[in-house]
Amino acid sequence: MPEYLEYLSGRGNLPKAVLRGGAYFISCGGGYTQTSAAVHADVEQKLKDMDQIGVDLAVINHGIPGPEMLGGAEADDWAARMNDFQAEVIQKYPGKFIGWANIGFGSPERSIQEVDRCINELGYKGVQLFSNINQKVVDSPEFMPVYRHIAKLGVPVNLHPTAPMNLNGMDLQPLVRGMSLMFDSTLATMRLVMSGIFEEEPGFKLIVPHTGGWVPYLRGRVERMIDIYEPPEGEPKLARPSAESVDRIYVDTVAHGPETMKYCYEMFGPEKIMFGTDHPYLPRDDGRPGVHRRRTRTHLPHQRRNPTRPCRLSPAG
After folding, report:
1. Is the pLDDT of residue 152 over 50?
2. Is the peptide bond before 280 cis (omega within 30 degrees of 0)?
3. Span between the terminal Cα atoms of the chain, in Å
4. Bridge partners, residue 97, by sequence
5. CA count, 13 A, side-chain hemisphere, 18
6. What is the spatial distance between Cα 39 and Cα 116, in angstroms, rounded to a whole number?
7. What's the rounded Cα separation, in Å, for the pair 87 and 124?
8. Were both Cys, which of 21, 195, 212, 311 would link to 251 (CB 3.0–4.6 Å)?
9. b/e for 30-46, b at 16 or more Cβ within 10 A?
10. What values do phi and psi take at 7, rounded to 5?
């Protein structure tokens, strides 16, 4: 949302932005800096890129930094403005976009009201959740009522990484973008598992992009630790094996390699895999933002074009 980036440019506190050479450099909490090129907000360019890579329908949502970084009423106000902006884009280009709703988390009451407005009035199909809420873990008690409410609506939650809570030893950009963001979303996923939300709410649907972060590869060890863990009095204890909760997550196809995609296919099955591109981040083979096509050996059948449904993957022989 261009107006949000302009607003951040005038702030004295984090998050705040500086415009240089056609890109915004945004300083966030925890020492993280996000770069956002002006073209990322260009809807016409996005439509051209969609046509070029064969995507008919795309989910749109706001990137880093989300409104929750502002805190308080300011966060809730900007979440509503972002949702209105996205709704206008969806209406202007019928049949091309659907949206994830943004949440400010300034107050649980306003967050729940905004979710209801987006789903019931604006026609949104799901909710965007970042991997921490302004440097607080996602399973903090004040946030749980919002998730329970979303679960009862029956719409999915898309868990996207944000400014990580821990950058110790990851001061190099390739490690931040290649590892730390994934660690943050993995931590958020497993904390949600431990919170008991999957057991309490059968309608809780969680999508973990980037093929689930590190979840597919660490889950066996972490699940074993969770299952033998005796929490302090007052903290939740799962009634069922944690693997049952992890099995319910959805992942996408932003794998950056066929071996990773094949592993996730075998672990989660085709009904839990969504088609994703990470557009407009990361370059394609031709250097433009979009889908990275390196060593593609995995088929996606025609239904891959609808990001609201799982897509079946068939590894090439």
Report:
1. yes
2. yes
3. 43
4. 58
5. 6
6. 31
7. 8
8. 212
9. bebebebeeebbeeeeb
10. -65, -45
Asked if 163 contacts 28 with a C-beta cutoff of 8 angstroms, the reply is: yes
Q: Over 70: is that where the pLDDT of 291 sits?
A: no
User: In the structure encoding, which two tokens stand for residue 179, read together?
Assistant: 């590892």
Q: Which of the pair, 245 or 303, is modelled with greater confidence?
A: 245
Say whether 176 sits in a helix, a strand or coil. Answer: helix
Distance CA 160, CA 39 (A): 21
Tokens of 203: 């309608």
Give the model's pLDDT for residue 309: 43
In angstroms, the Cα distances linking 63 to 2, 90, 97, 214, 257 are 12, 17, 16, 21, 24
* Lookup result for tokens 């440019």: 9
C-alpha 85/C-alpha 193 separation (Å) is: 33
- Eight-state DSSP code of residue 69: G
Residue among 209, 195, 70 at smallest CA distance from 133? 70
Among candidates 158, 218, 155, 154, which has minimal Cα distance to 186?
A: 218
pLDDT tens-place string over residues 105-129: 999 999 999 999 999 999 999 999 9
Rounded CA separation 61/285 (Å): 25
Q: Which residue has the higher pLDDT, 149 or 276?
A: 149
Which helix (H) or strand (E) segment holds residue 109: the answer is helix 108-116
- DSSP string computed for 208-223: EHHHHTTHHHHHHHHH
CA 55 – CA 274 distance, rounded (Å): 13
Whether 15 shows a pLDDT value over 90: the answer reads yes
- In the DSSP assignment, the letter for residue 304 is G
Residue, of 139 and 2, whose pLDDT is higher: 139
Q: Grade residue 97 by pLDDT with cuts at 50, 70 and 90.
A: very high
Does residue 315 have a pLDDT over 80? Answer: no
pTM value is 0.88
Return d(Cα 280, Cα 273) in angstroms, integer.
20
